[in-house]
Amino acid sequence: MLEIKGVCKTFNAGTVNEKRALNGLSLTLADGDFVTVIGGNGAGKSTMLNAVAGVFPVDEGSIVIDGVDVTRLPEHKRAPYIGRVFQDPMMGTAATMQIEENMALAARRGRPRTLRPGITKKEREEYREMLKILDLGLEDRLTSKVGLLSGGQRQALTLLMASLVKPKLLLLDEHTAALDPKTAAKVLETTEKIVERDHLTTLMITHNMKDAIAHGDRLVMLYDGRIVLDIAGEEKKRLTVEDLLEQFTKVSGAEFSSDRALLS
C-alpha cells in the first residue's frame, strides 16, 4: 500500500544551515499495516510524513501509494489517496462551521466540494451513526459550531473526518501530543477502533514510547534520517521502553535524545 524507496531530502543545501533530514529512507507498508514511528529530535519523522503527503519534493528516491507513483505529484493531487491528522487540533476542522457541515465536506473529498443543495436527512442520519463511535455525545450536537468543542473533541472529529472516505493511507502526525493524558488516551482508543474497523493502512508518529509499543502491529524507529529498528509481531508485544532504548543504542551507536519521549 505504501513503498518509500531510497528517499533523500536535504534542506538549505549549500548553506551553513544545511540539514540532511532523510538519508536513503526505505519503508514498505502492506495493506492494513498499522505502523507506529518513534525517533529522537531531528530524526526525520515529520519530514518522512511530509514527503509522503507531498508537502515538498524529495531530492532522490520514490514514493508509491497503492501501485501509483506519486513521487512527482504535488500535495493536492495526492489528497485523494491520503487522510491526515495533524498535531494541532485546530487544523483539521473549520471552526465557524457546524459539525455536520464539516463532515459533509469531508464526505465530498475527491469530488467538487459544495454544500448545495444542503445536507440531506439521509446524510444527517449517517453522520449521527458515525459519531457514536467517538463516544463523546457529538451525535446529539450536529448543528453545534466546531469552534465550541474542546481540543480533544475536535481531534477526535478530525480523525473521523480523515477516514470518512476511506483513504489508501492514514497519516497521524503526533495527533495526541497537544492533548492532556486522559484525552490523548481516549483519542488513541478511538484511533484503534477506526483503524481496525476500516482496515486502514496507517502511519502514526508519536513522541510517546509507551504509546508506540502499545498501539499498532509494527514499530519503526528513525535515526539520522533512516530506519534503524523495525519490530513487529510477538517481538513488538514483548517490548518494554528499556528494551527499545537498549536496541536503539546498539544499532545507532548513540544515546536516544528526546526528553519528551523519555519523560513520557
Helix and strand layout, with pairings?
Layout lengths: L1 E10 L7 E11 L4 E6 L5 H9 L6 E6 L2 E2 L5 H4 L3 E4 L13 H9 L13 H11 L19 H12 L6 E5 L7 H18 L3 E4 L3 H6 L3 E6 L2 E7 H5 L3 H12 L6 H5 L1
Parallel strand pairs: 3-8, 3-9, 6-7, 7-8
Antiparallel strand pairs: 1-2, 1-4, 4-5, 9-10
Helix pairs in contact: 5-6
Question: Taking all residues together, what is the mean pLDDT?
Answer: 92
Assembly state of the chains shown? single chain
**Helical run tally:** 10
Strand and helix order: EEEHEEHEHHHEHEHEEHHH
Largest sheet: 6 strands, mixed
Strand neighbour order, sheet with most strands = 6-7-8-3-9-10
- Percent helix range: 25-40%
Can you describe this structure?
This protein has 264 residues and is α/β, with parallel strands linked by helices. Helix content is 34%, strand content 23%. It contains ten helices and ten strands. The strands form two sheets. It has a six-stranded mixed sheet with strand order 6-7-8-3-9-10, with helices on both faces. It has a four-stranded antiparallel sheet with strand order 2-1-4-5, with helices on one face. Helix 5 packs parallel to helix 6. The longest helix is centred in the last third of the chain and has 18 residues, at 181-198. The chain is globular. The chain starts with a strand and ends with a helix. The mean pLDDT is 92.
